[in-house]
């Protein structure tokens, strides 16, 4: 495991990801038992952290999820059954660990197109479709429980097209977060999870000035996911209206 971590980092990886469980998107795979041992996972996490890198854990079944949390991973990807273990959510909050709920992957396998639950043509095996619908319910309960426990929540789409982060953001709001909490999960909280909060994610001195200015009098989902009045990247205008005059109702 130490050698595998070193190989990944030598090849240019910015982060290390481990599979502590199998995946529910694989028909013959059972994610309930952990997929690694305590010793294996501890070695991987220790080696990555020793070299200054962060560790993400794919974790679905509770055995592997618990192992990942206790081993000190930085982010737990999926973790949809965590609402059944409030003690683990409390441990994550205390250890400043991050949960990435990835609601969109459950929507995708279940053949659901939006937060309202409209059906689309599912291309997955019927057993996996049914399981994804149940797991979406589990993920809903975990998102709400994690927010209540004070766990850092970060937007992670994990479904094609991978750049459609605004869709995941809208689903997180639909499943219980406030818009402010969801936006934080795509900005400041995400930067903390990635270990780059000293450079990006918030508007503060010495931060890289990436800003989106909205032409809206209210901070709502349609405004955030809609057209921006202007977008700044590293302090330079890269998109938006050509005029320098700011609309009277921009907020």
Question: Can you give a write-up of this model?
Answer:
The chain is α/β, with parallel strands linked by helices and 251 residues long. 41% of the residues lie in helices and 13% in strands. It has ten helices and eight strands. The chain has a five-stranded parallel β-sheet, with helices on both faces. It has a three-stranded antiparallel β-sheet with strand order 6-7-8. Helix 5 packs antiparallel against helix 6 and helix 8 runs parallel beside helix 9. The longest helix is centred in the middle third of the chain and has 24 residues. It is globular, with a radius of gyration of 19 Å.
Mean pLDDT comes to: 88
Largest sheet: 5 strands, parallel
**Span from first to last CA?**
50 Å
Number of helices: 10
- SSE pattern: HEHEHEHEHHEHHHEHEE
User: In what order do the strands lie side by side in the largest sheet?
Assistant: 1-2-3-4-5
Strand share of the residues?
Answer: 5-15%
User: What Rg is obtained from the alpha carbons, in whole angstroms?
Assistant: 19 Å
Compute the number of strand runs.
Answer: 8
The structure class reads alpha/beta
Shape: globular
Helix content: 40-55%
- Uncertain segments: 246-251
């Amino acid at each position: 495991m130490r050698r595998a971590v070193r190989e990944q980092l030598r090849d240019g990886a910015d982060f290390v990801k481990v599979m502590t469980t199998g995946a529910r998107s694989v028909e013959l795979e059972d994610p309930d038992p952990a997929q690694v041992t305590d010793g294996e996972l501890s070695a991987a996490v220790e080696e990555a952290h020793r070299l200054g890198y962060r560790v993400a854990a794919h974790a679905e079944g509770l055995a592997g999820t618990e192992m990942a949390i206790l081993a000190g991973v930085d982010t737990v990807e999926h973790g949809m059954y965590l609402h059944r273990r409030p003690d683990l959510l409390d441990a994550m909050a205390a250890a400043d660990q991050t949960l990435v709920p990835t609601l969109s992957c459950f929507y995708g396998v279940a053949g659901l197109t939006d937060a309202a639950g409209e059906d689309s043509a599912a291309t997955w095996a019927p057993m996996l479709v049914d399981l994804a619908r149940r797991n979406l319910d589990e993920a809903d309960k975990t998102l709400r429980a994690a927010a209540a426990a004070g766990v850092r929540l970060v937007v992670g789409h994990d479904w094609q097209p991978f750049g459609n982060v605004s869709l995941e953001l809208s689903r997180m709001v639909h499943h219980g977060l406030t818009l402010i909490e969801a936006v934080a999960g795509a900005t400041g909280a995400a930067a903390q999870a990635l270990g780059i909060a000293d450079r990006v994610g918030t508007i503060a001195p010495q931060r890289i000035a990436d800003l989106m200015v909205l032409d809206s009098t209210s901070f709502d989902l349609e405004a955030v996911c809609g057209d921006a009045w202007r977008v700044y990247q590293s302090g330079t205008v890269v998109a938006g209206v050509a005029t320098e005059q700011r609309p009277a109702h921009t907020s």
